Amino acid sequence: MMKSFDPEQFSAIGDTLPDALLILQPNGVIEALNRAARKLFPRAQIGAHLENSVQEDSDAVGRLLKTWRRAATPTPGTLHARAEQPGMQNPPLRCEGCAVAQNGVLVLHCRPREQATKPFAILNEEIKKLQHANHELRHDREYLAQRVEERTRTIRESERRLHGILEALAEAVICFSHEGTVLSSNPAADTLFGYPTNAMIGVQMQTLLPGAWPEGSSSQPLPKRNMELNAQHRSGMTFPVEIKIRELILQDETVFTALISDISERKAHLLHLKYQAEHDVLTGLYNRRYFQSALDRLVDEGGTLNDAALLFIDLDNFKFVNDQYGHSAGDRVLKEISDLLQRHTRNSDLLARLGGDEFALLISDARAAEVDAIAERIRTSLETYTFTCSEGYADIGCSIGIADLHEPLAVNLVLGRAEFACRRAKNRGRNAIWRYTDTDEEAAKAGTQEMGWLNRIRRALRDDLFVLHIQPILGTDTNDLAASEVLIRLADQGDSLVMPNAFLPAAERFGLMPEIDRWVVRHALRRISHETGALSINLSGTTLEHGGIADYVAQQCQEHDVATERLVFEVTETAAIANLAGTAMELGKLQALGCRTALDDFGAGMSSFAYLRELPVDWVKIDGRFVRDLAQNSVDLAMVKAMHEIAHTLGKHTVAEFVENQDTLVILKKLGINFVQGYHLGRPMPLDRSTCLMT
Questions:
Q1: Spatial separation of the C-alpha atoms in residues 212 and 231, rounded to whole Å
Q2: Where is the GGDEF domain (predicted)?
Q3: Chain centroid to CA 13: how far?
Q4: pLDDT given at position 465
Q5: Are 570 and 621 in contact (CB under 8 A)?
Q6: Which of 43, 109, 185, 684 has the fewest CB atoms inside 10 Å of its own CB, making it the most exposed?
Q7: Which of 437, 441, 451 is nearest to 509 (CA)?
Q8: d(CA 489, CA 468)
Q9: Rg, Å, the chain Cα set
């Protein structure tokens, strides 16, 4: 079949283009393709149908050809190049096709989906070079005249087709001289820069891309071939672009082509991502990561440290708002206080929300007296701030710690000093300010040790490094096992264990007891799911105050198929009295599930008897300090007897702890104590090895 397009002519021009271009007859037969297309479609051949080169079936290819025949502008579609080996799957290609009105052929521009558009050149001058070469190759005048006429027709056709290809492309393409004068531009470039058709010819590239050339002259050599800079619209408006420039030699003359992409949306998206990475979503303040980076920079500078200080601001009554009115109310408080703090912050200072209800303010270029004044204004403004909502109101207030930056310090140490000073302010009764001084160093070291426990506890929770032991509680009459008390240990180096009195105080201070109690419940129930016998598990006052432990116990019992009647939950008298109403409510919920409850260390407080009837407990565990020496101490004996009689009067069973010898056990039996526990009866042992104690 006679081709309407010279493939050799097209290859001479098209092979300089980095993107794949194919020229198709309307029915899909390939007339010409450049080098990039041969790489992208290994099976493509001139004269063969497009469907032989792709994985799509003939119906899918037919639908795309039909779409492209009707398209006056580039219309995208997806094709997969046919793999060279059976069973292989090539990645999808984005193919933009349209019909060229002058001769009805289809122009197909393809590239991998994940790659950015690559530049290509306008090569009209190459046509003259090819024409000149044809003249030299013809020896016979008549034959030469005939060939010249044929070649001229081919060249004109190629010009029209190449012009159609450029117009069909969605990317802006500009051809310019070595002096920076625009020689040609496609419609996309005209639209991008706001020029009418052909009006850009003769314009200096320095006008379009002011920052691309040194010393403000586009006649200077190009410093870069790929760059991002601001382009200038004909209206004077600037916008960011990505430009890729390629050099061509046509008839010993150097020209350049530029592929230009508007990257305004991409830049805006990057700015949005940068803002999100540096700011707190709720308040719009800088976040902890950005604040620490800024503090790092200030510490690295070193020269301005004498006039810099860090304020650590912690809200005093925020937890009450969250618990009483809900988290949406808490979010409102944080937003309103953020606005309030910004009103008391200088433009040169840096305010950030570190997380939760903690804020930090980095003050530079301010003497100590000015720092004190700023801190006092913040404290006063929060002292007078009252949060109001339909359910009620709450006064907030804050505690502020100040750390002066007199010397280069690690960022964590600077923050740690300010946070320590804030805790000192809270310990003074809250709504106060405390400046970190040298006298705080020893106290801070103790706090550092406590922070070490905090990290170990968190790691133990994450990696299951706690170890459970149990100690038997026996009936005094039958010597039968009534329950086994669960005791927690922390795995240390080697086979050694850390006792709870070493790490639980830190856990209480940092609010980790609810997590620890839930860890114990979860792992203890998992261990006894296939055993018999009862477990007695200790709960902290913090866990009962937070609430929800009864629901968690019910869920774990169902998950591990453990009857709630097998569980006893203990709370110390001191913890129960500290939050009497909340403790009574949670213990009542546990009893409603079928669990038994116990009051531990009974007798430790002066008002023990008064509170006993207020608490829904089944067992009363008498403080071991009264039990240990009762065989030799008549006062202890009288106290234990009185506690036992009061407990029985209220319908509760008694448990005596610290039973360490036979004489004590005999006396307790005579008193009628229901259950006993101590080293004389059984020492704690690992739960995993205690099957005999569970039967």
A1: 9
A2: 306-438
A3: 50
A4: 92
A5: yes
A6: 43
A7: 451
A8: 6
A9: 42
- 189 and 174 Cβ atoms separated by less than 8 Å: yes
CA nearest neighbour of 187 among 204, 169, 175: 169
The amino acid that residue 174 corresponds to is I
DSSP letter for each residue of 31-95: EEE-HHHHHH-TT--TTSBGGGGBSS-HHHHHHHHHHHHT-SS-EEEEEEBPPSSTT--PPEEEE
Q: How do residues 410-422 score in pLDDT, each as one tens digit?
A: 666 788 889 889 9
- Top-confidence range, 104-113, 329-338, 428-437: 329-338
Angle of the 500-509 helix axis to the 513-528 helix axis, nearest 10: 130
3-state SS, residue 432: coil
238-250: strand order across its sheet: 182-185, 172-177, 253-262, 238-250, 226-232
The owner of tokens 């001084």 is 437
DSSP string over 454-506: HHHHHHHHHHT-EEEEEEEEEETTT--EEEEEEEEEEE-STT-EE-HHHHHHH
Give Cβ neighbours of residue 555 (< 8 Å, ≥ 6 apart). Answer: none
Is the pTM higher than 0.70? The answer reads: no
- In terms of Cβ atoms closer than 10 Å to its own Cβ (0-12, 13-18, 19+), residue 450 is middle
Q: Please name the residues in contact with 397: beta carbons below 8 A apart, sequence gap of 6 or more.
A: 315, 316, 317, 382, 383, 385, 430, 431
Whether 65 contacts 30, CB under 8 Å: no
Which of 509, 569, 562 shows the shortest CA–CA distance to 539? Answer: 569
C-alpha distance from residue 235 to each of 208, 212, 263, 410 (Å)? 11, 19, 18, 51
Decide if 329 contacts 337 (C-beta within 8 A).
no
Residue 622 near residue 668 (C-beta atoms within 8 A): no
For Cα atoms 56, 57, 61, give the angle at the middle one, nearest 5 degrees.
75
3-class SS at 435? strand
The separation between the first and the last C-alpha atoms of the chain, rounded to the nearest angstrom, is 95
Interatomic CA distance for residues 95 and 19, integer angstroms: 11
Name the DSSP class of 241.
E
Please report the domains of the chain, with CATH numbers, ordered by start residue.
Answer: 7-130 (3.30.450.20), 171-267 (3.30.450.20), 279-436 (3.30.70.270), 453-694 (3.20.20.450)
- Residue with the two structure tokens 């710690």: 401
Nearest alpha carbon to residue 562 among 550, 570, 553:
553
- The DSSP element (H or E) to which 263 belongs, if any, is none
Directed axis angle between helix 441-463 and helix 411-427, to 10°? 100
CA dist., res. 97 & res. 110, Å (int): 9
425 touches 401 (CB < 8 A): yes
Q: Cα dist. 660→514, 677, 678, 683 in Å?
A: 32, 9, 6, 10
- pLDDT score of 124 more than 50: no
